[in-house]
Amino acid sequence: MRYRFCVTAILLTLMAVSPVHAQKNCPFTGNLDFRKKELTLNVSPASAGSLTLTVNQAAQDNYNLSLSMDHWKAPGLDISTQLKSLIAVMVDPENSRLRMTGDILSQYTLVNYKPVRELSGNFHFENRVLYLDSLAIGGIRAGGKLELISPFKMDVSLNLKEIRMDDFLKFWGAQDDLRSDGFVSGNIHVTGAIGSPFLKGTLESRDGFVDELHYSSIILNVAGAYPVLYLNDSSVAQSDGMAFNLEGPFNLANRDHFDAEVAGLRTLPVISENAQAREWTLKRDGEASGGELKYIMRNEKENNVSRQGSDLMGVQRSIKF
């Protein structure tokens, strides 16, 4: 029984600690009490916050896990939370492999010093792989797997459903006083080693505003190795009918200069043409107030024949993005 408890405690420790902060030097202290059937582990890497893990036996082959994070550092994140889980341990009779199943709940969670909705979900573990059967944080749903051996490769899908625009922007470093409204939905696929994962996905928002930008739609297609993502084939349609494409790199780790990252994206004119009209957008640079002009050239026809000199040009002005 002691052997089973010891093996289980070690595995639970790896599940809790390794994916969060995988580095070579990770000092820790701990205590294993066979009489109480309880393991306590404290981890405090340099400049990475602290983590306290407690594992105790609730019943035969059932264990309570409690994990407390105090300003724990992950890529671009500062996390404080308390996680609790009840885990069942069993041995697969076909291959004698140890298998664990459990659920997880969080409370008092802060991400980058701001409260967020709590986490809940179910998982199982076997053959050194942690499988996220279902994981939810507010409007975010996650599923996939994470290898618990170096380099800790992952294959996780994230689904975002109607995340408030202000919460979405603040999470990535926008100022608290940035006015916004609307919701963000989409999907992001995360693969590769946990230290430098590759992200690819599509995010979409409709009928909202960010500061002075009022839009009918924003569609972002992103891909790249964290922390630098590249926008390509992305577009913004303003509420007044103006439209432009976005492309370029965005550094998610540059949280203190969110505005500069946005300003560094390239805005490209949207050009469309048909038999009746040609339309394009030109961006005017070099002025503090800024602006964009939308030009429309229309061919007027009489009896399906173009009239000489009858081309009309209209000019419309839009707000600055």
Looking at the structure, what is the overall shape?
Answer: elongated
Quick one: how many beta strands? 24
Question: What structural class results from the helix and strand content?
Answer: mainly beta
What amount of the residues lies in strands?
Answer: over 45%
**Radius of gyration (Å):** 26 Å
Number of helices: 3
Give helix and strand order, one letter per element, not per position.
HEEEEEEEEEEEHEEEEEEHEEEEEEE
Give start-end ranges of low-pLDDT stretches.
18-24, 282-321
Relative helix content: under 10%
Distance linking N and C termini: 65 Å
The major pleated sheet works out as: 18 strands, antiparallel
Provide the residue-averaged pLDDT: 78
Topology:
Layout: H1 2-17, E1 28-33, E2 38-43, E3 50-59, E4 62-74, E5 77-91, E6 98-111, E7 114-115, E8 119-126, E9 129-137, E10 140-147, E11 153-164, H2 165-171, E12 180-181, E13 183-193, E14 198-210, E15 213-225, E16 228-238, E17 243-251, H3 258-263, E18 266-269, E19 272-273, E20 277-284, E21 291-298, E22 301-302, E23 305-306, E24 312-318
Antiparallel strand pairs: 1-2, 2-3, 3-4, 4-5, 5-6, 6-7, 6-8, 8-9, 9-10, 10-11, 11-13, 12-14, 13-14, 14-15, 15-16, 16-17, 17-18, 19-20, 20-21, 21-24, 22-23
Q: What do you see in this structure?
A:
It is a single chain. By secondary structure, the protein is mainly β. The chain is 9% helix and 61% strand. The chain is built from three helices and 24 strands. The strands form three sheets. The protein has an 18-stranded antiparallel β-sheet that branches. The chain starts with a helix and ends with a strand. The C terminus is likely disordered.
